[in-house]
Amino acid sequence: MILRLRSGQARAGAIIVSIVVGAAVLAPWVLAWDPAEQDLPNRLQGPSWQHWFGLDELGRDILARVLLGARVSLMVGVVVVGVSSGVGLVVGGVSGYYGGRIDQLICRVMDILMAFPGMLLAIALVAVLGPSLVNVVLALAVIGWVGSARLVRGQVLRAREFEYVTAAKALGAGTVRILRRHVLPAAIQPLLVQATLGMAGAILSEAALSFLGLGVQPPTPSWGTMINGGRVHLLDAPHLTIFPGLFLAIVVLGFNVLGDGLRDAIDPKRQ
Amino acid sequence: MLRYVIRRLVFAVPVLLGVATLVFSLIHLVPGDPAQAMLGDGAAPQDVIELRKTLGLDRPLHLQYVEFLRHALAGDLGNSFRTGQPVTEMIAKRLPATAELALAAMVVAVVLAIPLGTIAAVRHRTATDYAAMTFALAGVSIPIFWLGPLLAIVFAVELGWLPVSGRGTPAHLVLPAFSLGLALAAILARMTRASLLDELGELYVRAARARGVSRLASITRHALRNSCIPLLTIIALQFGAVLTGAVITETIFAWPGIGRLLIQSIGFRDYPLVQGCILLIAVTYVTVNLLTDLLYGVLDPRIRFE
User: Fold this and answer.
1) pTM as predicted
2) Most CB contacts within 10 A, which of A258, B4, B66, B84?
3) Tens digits of residue pLDDT in A24-42
4) Rounded Cα gap, residues A18 and A37, in angstroms
5) Predicted complex ipTM
6) Which residues of chain B have a CB within 8 Å of the CB of A233?
7) How far does B172 lie from chain A, in Å, by closest CA?
């Protein structure tokens, strides 16, 4: 870990995230029920000792589906944040370090993308590309890199003026080496914070798109799809909506708390 | 001030052009033939050719683009593929509902957030502060599409105090506005606290207290007023989130606004209507940001001389 989790808040966030990640990873080995197995005679049954979160409209175990949904959400979060941060690091680094026309061009593209509310652009992209998990990841990465690139650009603009960068230039270091060894590392810590908060955003966005029917398609379980499916049974079987939503809120809360804690650790003034 | 306004307006032109270009490109991102996608795989080839002609997809791309911009500037966004009605007309009918919901949500957010953030800042590092910030963190993390149905169960179904869906009376507005406004309230409360904490540490606040100004007046008349600029930024930036959130809230509460129209048009693959809704929401967002920039110039004279 680049930052030691000194603050209680960061530790609390890390614990929540670790529990959910652990449960999602171990789910296939520890679950007693197959998420696809249907028990139609007992459909919509409430929570019981046998099925802790109850059964859904097709008699499938909700706990198993919630944990399988966690795998989908976390996977989307990791891929979206990984791609966004990677692209943001390169584009922001180049934009900030070289300046001039390249910077102008990149900034204008970022201005246009920032002119759209992020989720709206994601909805638009998924609407035309078609609803699927891959298209959700693509749409969220398209809107996600801009924030990272802006952050990295700002950090690089600051870092390139430092004396040690001038010294490296004077010693004959190449551009790639200067960027890789001296300039970009300055952007890593804030980028890590942004990535943690970005995980929360990506997970929430995937669930929102799935809720609107534009994301993960049944029978693959996704928290958004499960909440949407549960709306029909809000009165007779609210557990269909409550459990996936609760898990979603807890995971998002965990990443938000972790991100906030890391930000405080980087910038003690914020405390 | 006039130079500042003109400069900001000039900066907005390329952004608006970029937004229009991106919206124009959307229909060309449809995998395969958009006309075929709209009519479905079983459509007769003649119908597909006809629709391509109607949508103008048979012409060279640059001509389509120029035509799109020309028509968009004249307020003509084409006709809905499904109903045949002009897109502008369909959007105009739904616009008041979305504006009403967005404004109500913003009011809910501001009314909840400013007192909450202020109390948290004034009672910094006390149980009140921690409770307020825990509420704010929970508010940011709870998805609208989960909160909305839960609020509907409690206040519409169990207690029967409010209608569960639709639009008509002020009572219809309460649940959608609260669902949409709570997340924004959480973000605003955090910002109010952070911004006010910065201001409370400033010398001018201490000087005011030393001059005998009451604690309440030093907070409300001096510190809070100076916290307004960062708050205004967040409100403007969050307006985009409100517009997007409206898409979800309108879907949950069957609120007849543009968000619901957008989701319905996606379901019918009515691409001209999808383009129209997206363009309108994006242009509204850019305009709100522009107005905010202009307002900065009024609130803080230093900004317009930079």
Assistant:
1) 0.87
2) A258
3) 999 888 877 788 888 888 8
4) 28
5) 0.85
6) none
7) 19
